[in-house]
Design goal:
Blueprint (H helix, E strand, L loop, with lengths): L1 E4 L4 H18 L7 H4 L9 E6 L2 E9 L5 E8 L8 H15 L4 E7 L5 H7 L3 E11 L11 E5 L5 H12 L14 E8 L2 E11 L2 E9 L8 H15 L4 E7 L3 H10 L2 E12 L4
Parallel strand pairs: 4-5, 10-11
Antiparallel strand pairs: 1-2, 2-3, 3-4, 5-12, 6-11, 6-12, 7-8, 8-9, 9-10
Helix pairs in contact: 6-7
């Protein structure tokens, strides 16, 4: 049966973690579950759907991105319980919740290692949108920092500059003020000679660290700024207790992929994103 969860208790989180271990052991790769987010789910809203068979969790579907313009879904089904309609039922239960949020579209994250993931997404009426490589760094990088670059916490006054950088790097100028500084996440500005030349965001949840929103302004590229910032941030994250650092890069961004691999990042899996429009265009 399906449970619409209002927050996730510790026993439920452990059941989700056990299901994740079983799925990854069977399929390989990884699942984009965002554990820091799952641990802080609000108790007054439904953001996760669980399929229970007695006390055993056979299926999970999480809804992410409530502060974004779009929503994302990530889910999994126990390897021994597939082809029983669990994924289809969870998706059908999630759609009304997603439509209530008045977002423009829904993205579903499908690891390429997932058996039948592509067929399920297409069968649900979704269309292919883009793909990303998931990379991880398991060893603290070496090297020393120069004095030319300064990393500082972004403030609301930086939002216009962040908008320009995001538009340049991602084609989307929107900035969520709530993501500038949080309990486990932080957006940094990269300053050179007192001028902001880039930005990067990071998150640390226990031993897992993640880097996202990394942009160096177009006029400042190919000057070694990205490599130095990436190395410094990874060093700091390992010093803060991280056992590894994760990030994602679009599959056609060869320049960024080359940068990450020279610092020591290694590919884990490739994730395909499928899109469903929620509002009329």
């Amino acid at each position: 049966m399906i449970e619409q969860a209002h927050g996730l208790t510790d026993p439920v989180l452990e059941a989700i973690a056990d299901l994740e271990r079983r799925v990854v052991a069977a399929d390989g790769g990884r699942l984009k579950l965002e554990w820091g987010t799952l641990r802080r789910r609000p108790t007054d809203q439904v953001r996760d759907l669980l399929w229970w068979d007695g006390e055993q969790l056979l299926g999970f579907l999480g809804i992410y991105g409530f502060n974004w313009q779009h929503l994302e879904l990530t889910g999994m089904v126990h390897p021994d319980a597939r082809r029983r309609g669990i994924a289809k039922a969870l998706f059908a239960a999630a759609l009304p919740i997603c439509r209530e949020q008045e977002k423009d579209r829904l993205l579903t994250v499908v690891p390429r290692t997932s058996p039948g993931g592509r067929q399920f997404a297409l069968g649900a009426g979704m269309s292919y949108e883009h793909s990303e490589h998931a990379l991880t760094l398991a060893v603290r990088p070496g090297g020393t920092a120069t004095s030319e670059l300064n990393l500082r916490q972004a403030t609301p006054e930086d939002i216009p500059t962040l908008s320009e950088l995001y538009l340049d790097g991602f084609g989307d100028a929107r900035v969520d003020p709530e993501r500038l500084a949080g309990e486990r996440s932080l957006t940094l500005m990269i300053d050179r000679a007192g001028v902001a030349v880039g930005t990067v965001a990071l998150a640390l949840d226990g031993e897992r660290s993640a880097i996202y929103g990394f942009v160096v302004g177009a006029e400042q590229r190919r000057k070694g700024i990205g490599r130095e910032v990436l190395r410094r941030i990874c060093q700091d994250q390992f010093d803060a207790g991280a056992s590894h650092v994760d990030l994602e890069v679009e599959v056609d961004n060869d320049r960024a992929l080359g940068l990450y691999t020279t610092v020591g990042f290694e590919p884990v899996t490739t994730e395909d994103y499928y899109e469903l429009m929620l509002q009329p265009s």
